[in-house]
Specification:
Pfam families: DND1_DSRM, dsrm, Ribonuclease_3. Its cofactor is Mg(2+); Mn(2+). This protein is α+β, with helices and mostly antiparallel strands. The chain folds into 3 domains: about 200 residues, Ribonuclease III domain (Ribonuclease iii, N-terminal Endonuclease Domain, Chain A); about 70 residues, Double Stranded RNA Binding Domain (2-Layer Sandwich); about 110 residues, Double Stranded RNA Binding Domain (2-Layer Sandwich), CATH 3.30.160.20. It is about 45% helix and about 15% strand. A hairpin with a 2-residue loop joins strand 1 and strand 2. Helix 5 crosses helix 6 and helix 5 packs across helix 9.
Length: about 425
């Protein structure tokens, strides 16, 4: 699906015996059928909503349908739920495709954690609030309006991190799934165009600033690492849930509790508190680095359309001796030596040393420095070095950069390393 997109996925399902009839005429039919929602257009400001989304709809009925709540009974055409179903699948696929393509070094469990941090009700609700989508929802439910107003007011005055007891439950209607589904249909299933719009929605989320992982998952892994058992017990009193987390193990018996109007939020908070208790007792995760730390240093490919086939180098390979290699070229050099920043100031670091660090950080093979030219005699002698780097996601390819001639081996290798770093910086990092 990453490489062959919709056509390849359809062909694969057909090969498995699952008949999938995807015709443009059927998409056009769905778009035309949405015209039954146009009588409701007078209830919302279409132009303002399109400005908030950043997309002009060809079929305005799809846009209206995306904001009709099931509680609205004055219209027999339906509501946003079918578009929500479609948009939820698209969001999950595009975010998964993005993470899989952009972070090739992360393990499946780490990718799952990142996807959970992106694709969840709170993230979508924050986007809907930021874009003021809640103002355009057509409904007849006074309870929904009150819960949305309460959540919007709270989110604008508090950071939604689960630490506040009074945090209200997140209304499911505060979301972007139906809007994404409507855009997908209106563009004729153009995933590239949908991705560009969705990226403007999710950009703060997929940058993982202030990354927060599921504390229940973290507690589970911590207890498994030390052969401890844990459980949650909940009670409800005056519309407030009290959740208690209990952990038992060898010489360990601890508990923590949290309360919230949302049972799920209370459970997450009690797990957070228990993790803090266990860490104070000396129970640390077996992994040497948390995912937050890994994200700071992990390799990240240059971002592009998540639904497009990935050509990370941006140049086509050519064959030489039966092996695919990247074009050998002389590249502009960086300042010599490189200046690197640290918390205590700056220091001088050679390009060769930095290249070795880059390869080590990404678990690549060390760079190979090869003398390709040895010209001149005695005091006129000049050496030209090339450096070869083999990223592990390109099993049959490698980066080959040639430096400028120099009289000293160290200087010649430095020039080649500078070119390689320049190439990595402009095409990878």
């Amino acid at each position: 699906m990453i490489c062959s997109l919709l056509c390849g996925a359809t062909a694969f399902l057909d090969w498995m015996g699952i008949q999938v009839e995807f015709e443009n005429s059927k998409v056009s039919h769905f778009c035309s059928a949405s015209s039954v929602y146009l009588p409701l257009a007078a209830q919302i400001d279409i132009a303002a909503l399109e400005d908030s989304i950043g997309y002009q709809f060809n079929n305005k009925g799809l846009l209206v349908q995306a904001f009709v709540h099931p509680s609205y009974s004055y219209h027999s055409g339906g509501c946003y739920q079918r578009l929500e179903f479609l948009g939820d699948a698209v969001l999950d696929y595009l975010v998964t495709s993005y993470l899989y393509s952009v972070y090739p070094k992360l393990k499946p469990g780490q990718l799952t954690d990142l996807r959970s941090a992106c694709v969840n009700n709170i993230s979508f609700a924050n986007i809907a609030i930021h874009r003021s989508f809640y103002k355009f929802i057509i409904s007849e439910s006074s309870g929904l309006c009150k819960s949305m107003d309460k959540y919007v007011k709270f989110s604008r005055t508090h950071q939604l991190n689960g630490n506040v007891v009074e945090a209200p439950a997140c209304p499911k209607a505060l979301g972007v799934e139906s809007c994404i589904g409507a855009i997908l249909l209106d563009t004729g299933f153009n995933l590239n165009q949908v991705w560009k719009i969705m990226l403007s929605f999710l950009d703060p989320v997929i940058n993982f600033s202030g990354l927060q992982l599921n504390p229940i998952r973290e507690l589970q892994e911590l207890c498994q690492a030390y052969n401890m058992e844990f459980e949650f017990a909940s009670t409800e009193k005056e519309n407030t849930y009290i959740v208690e987390a209990k952990v038992n193990g060898k010489d360990v018996s601890e508990y923590s509790s949290a309360s919230n109007f949302s049972k799920k939020a209370a459970k997450r908070e009690s797990a957070k508190q228990m993790i803090l208790v266990l860490k104070e007792l000396g129970f640390k995760p077996k992994s040497t680095r948390s995912l937050e730390e890994i994200m700071k240093f992990t390799y990240k490919r240059k971002r592009g359309a998540s639904s497009s086939k990935v050509h990370p180098l941006g140049v086509g390979p050519h064959r030489s001796g039966g092996t695919e290699i990247e074009s050998v070229r002389e590249l502009p050099s960086l300042p010599d030596p490189l200046e690197c920043q640290t918390t205590s100031g700056s220091f001088k670091k050679s390009a060769k040393s930095l290249l070795y660090e880059i390869c080590a950080a990404n678990n690549w093979d060390p760079p190979a420095f090869v003398c390709c030219k040895d010209e001149g005699e005695n005091h006129l002698r000049k050496l030209t070095y090339r450096v070869i780097v083999k990223p592990d996601w390109l099993p049959k390819c490698f980066i080959d950069a040639m430096g400028r001639p120099a009289r000293k081996k160290k200087v010649a290798e430095e020039h080649a390393a500078e070119g390689t770093i320049w190439h990595l910086k402009n095409h990878f990092l």
